[in-house]
Design brief:
Layout lengths: L7 H11 L3 H8 L3 H8 L7 H11 L9 H14 L11 H10 L1 H29 L11 H12 L6 H14 L7 H13 L2 E4 L9 E4 L4 E4 L5 H16 L1 H10 L5 H20 L2 H10 L4 H8 L3 H8 L13 E6 L4 E6 L16 H5 L7 E6 L5 E11 L9 E10 L19 E3 L24 E2 L11 E2 L1
Parallel strand pairs: 1-3, 6-9
Antiparallel strand pairs: 2-3, 4-5, 4-8, 6-7, 7-8, 10-11
Helix pairs in contact: 2-3, 5-6, 5-7, 6-7, 8-13, 9-13, 10-11, 11-13, 12-13
Length: about 475
C-alpha cells in the first residue's frame, strides 16, 4: 500500500511563490478554501486528483511533492534528537514528523546547527592534544564539516542533478558513446579536437598524481596505474571542467554552502557526477539495467565501467518521468567508515560513528569478489534487499598495504523482483537481519552485536548477571 503524501509545506510554498491566497488557489484548483487549509496544515493528504490538478494548472513536477525527502529528514532529526543535550525535552517521533512536514527549512537549519555544535565540542575536547603536538589552532577545524555539508546536499536531491545529467547524455550521443564507441578514446579525441588538449598516459609511478591537468600547456597526464574505466572517468571529468562550468556553478550556487571549501568540494563532486553520466548515459543505462535486471556483473561486462561506477550510477537514476529502481549506495572501508554514501531510498546511513554491525557490507570483506544478498529491516519497519561486495586494489609497491573496500547497494523489497538477486529467494520466509543506523541511536533492545548503549535510553547493570551485552536497556 502506497504511503499517503502529506506535503502541506510544499503546497504553501508554491502558493506563496505564486502570490496567491488560499481562496485564490482553491478557486484555481476547483476545491474549497477549507480543503486547501487542511492540506497546508497536513490534516489531509494530497490526493492523486489534486496532484494532477496542481501539475496541469501550474506546470509543476508532481514528484517534488513526494514523501521520500521527509522520511529521510525525520530519520536525521531522530538521530540528532538522541543527543543527551535534548534528553529532558522528550522529543517524540510525532514532534519530528510535525516539524519536518510543517517547516522542513527549519528542520534543515536545526540539523546544520547541531552538526556545528557537535564539531565545536569535539574541537574543544581535542584542543589540548593539538596544542601539545604543536598543531596550530584552526588548522584542521573545518575540514570535516564541508564534506558533510556537501554529502547532505546530494542526499536531499536524491543524488540526481538534472541539468548536468541531460547535458552528459547529449554529449554522449554526439561522441558516439551510445553506439558503443570506446569511451576513453572518444573523450580524448574530443578534447584534442575541441580544446586542443592532449591526453597522455604517464609511467606507472605510485608517487605521481593519478591525473594532472595543465591549462597552460593544454595537457592532461594520467597515471599509468589507472585502470581503463578510471582513465575514461578522469578524461570525462576534465570535459565537465572545460565545457560545463556554467551548469556546475549554478548547481553549486543552489547549495548555498557556508564555506569556500564546501563550494570547491561540491564543484569537484559535480565534475565527477558529469563524468559518470557521460560514461553511462541515462536512458541507455536505465534501459540496460532494466533489461539485465540490475545484474552487476553483466552491467560491468556490457558497459566496460568499473563496479563502483555502475553501483554509483544506479543510485542516481531518479530523473522525473523516467525513474529507475531507487537504490542506496555506500562505500565502506575495513574500519567501518562510510567513505561514500548516496540514497534514493529511505535507507539511512549514520551521520556520526560506525555503521550497523549486522549489515552485510562488513561480512563482504571475508569473501571478496562475491556478491552477498541479505534481507534487512530498519527500525522503521522498512525492508530492503541488501547487496554487498568487497573489492581489493593491489598494492603498488612492496610494503604498501592493499586497499580494500566493500560496496553496499540495495533497494526496498517492493522492488526486489526487478533484480536478479531476488531469484530463488523467498522474501516472506527468508531470514531478516535487524539493521539499525548506528548503535548510539538504535532502539533495538535484543541485539547481540550492540557495541554501545543508545544515547536516548537508560541502561541497567546487574552485577550478578552477565550476558553477551553487559547491560539491559530500559
Amino acid at each position: 500500500m502506497r504511503q499517503k503524501i502529506y506535503a502541506g509545506h510544499a503546497v504553501r510554498r508554491l502558493r506563496e511563490k505564486l502570490g496567491l491566497k488560499q481562496s485564490e488557489l482553491a478557486q484555481r484548483l476547483a476545491v474549497s478554501p477549507s480543503y486547501i487549509n487542511q492540506i497546508e496544515s497536513n490534516q489531509r493528504p494530497l490526493t492523486a486528483s489534486i496532484l494532477i490538478a496542481i501539475s496541469r494548472t501550474f506546470a509543476v513536477d508532481i514528484t517534488s511533492f513526494g514523501a521520500e525527502d521527509l522520511d529521510r529528514l525525520v530519520a536525521d532529526l531522530r538521530e540528532t534528537a538522541a543527543d543527551p543535550l535534548f534528553k529532558d525535552l522528550d522529543l517524540g517521533l510525532q514532534d519530528m514528523k510535525a516539524v519536518a512536514n510543517l517547516s522542513p527549512a527549519f528542520a534543515h537549519a536545526f540539523l546544520r546547527m547541531h552538526v556545528a555544535l557537535r564539531r565545536t565540542a569535539e574541537w574543544r575536547a581535542s584542543l589540548d592534544d593539538m596544542l601539545t603536538a604543536g598543531v596550530a589552532p584552526g588548522a584542521d577545524e573545518a575540514k570535516l564539516i564541508p564534506y558533510e555539508e556537501v554529502r547532505d546536499f546530494f542526499h536531499y536531491i536524491d543524488n540526481y542533478v538534472d541539468p548536468l545529467d541531460r547535458a552528459a547524455e547529449a554529449a554522449a550521443s554526439s561522441l558516439g558513446i551510445l553506439e558503443g564507441a570506446d569511451p576513453a578514446a572518444a573523450f580524448a579525441a574530443h578534447l584534442a579536437r575541441r580544446h586542443n588538449v592532449q591526453v597522455e598516459v604517464g609511467p606507472a609511478d605510485p608517487d605521481a598524481p593519478l591525473s594532472r591537468f595543465d591549462p597552460r600547456l593544454r595537457r592532461l597526464v594520467l597515471s599509468g596505474v589507472l585502470s581503463t574505466p578510471t582513465r575514461a572517468f578522469r578524461i570525462a571529468a576534465t570535459i565537465a571542467q572545460l565545457e560545463h562550468g556554467a551548469l556546475v556553478e549554478a548547481t553549486v550556487a543552489s547549495g548555498a554552502f557556508r564555506s569556500q571549501t564546501a563550494t570547491e568540494i561540491c564543484r569537484l563532486a559535480l565534475h565527477n557526477y558529469f563524468a559518470g553520466a557521460l560514461m553511462l548515459p541515462y536512458r541507455r543505462f536505465h534501459d540496460l539495467a532494466r533489461r539485465l535486471r540490475h545484474d552487476l556483473d553483466r552491467l560491468v561486462l556490457e558497459t566496460g565501467a568499473s563496479l563502483e561506477q555502475v553501483c554509483h550510477r544506479l543510485s542516481t537514476l531518479q530523473r522525473p518521468g523516467a525513474k529507475g529502481v531507487p537504490f542506496y549506495f555506500a562505500k565502506v572501508d575495513r574500519a567501518g567508515n562510510i567513505t561514500k554514501r548516496h540514497s534514493a531510498t529511505r535507507f539511512q546511513f549514520a551521520r556520526h560513528g560506525g555503521a550497523c554491525a549486522a549489515w552485510n557490507v562488513h561480512e563482504a570483506f571475508e569473501m571478496p569478489g562475491r556478491t552477498l544478498v541479505q534481507v534487512g529491516e530498519m527500525p522503521d519497519g522498512a525492508r530492503y534487499i541488501c547487496l554487498a561486495r568487497a573489492v581489493v586494489s593491489p598494492s603498488l609497491r612492496h610494503g604498501q598495504p592493499s586497499r580494500a573496500y566493500a560496496f553496499g547497494l540495495g533497494c526496498e523489497v517492493a522492488f526486489a523482483h526487478d533484480t536478479v538477486y531476488a531469484d530463488g529467494l523467498d522474501l516472506k520466509a527468508a531470514p531478516v537481519a535487524k539493521l539499525g543506523v548506528s548503535c548510539r541511536i538504535c532502539p533495538r533492545r535484543d541485539c547481540d552485536l550492540r557495541a554501545f548503549p543508545p544515547l536516548d535510553r537508560e541502561i541497567r547493570i546487574d552485577e550478578n548477571v552477565r550476558d553477551i551485552v553487559p547491560f539491559t536497556i530500559s
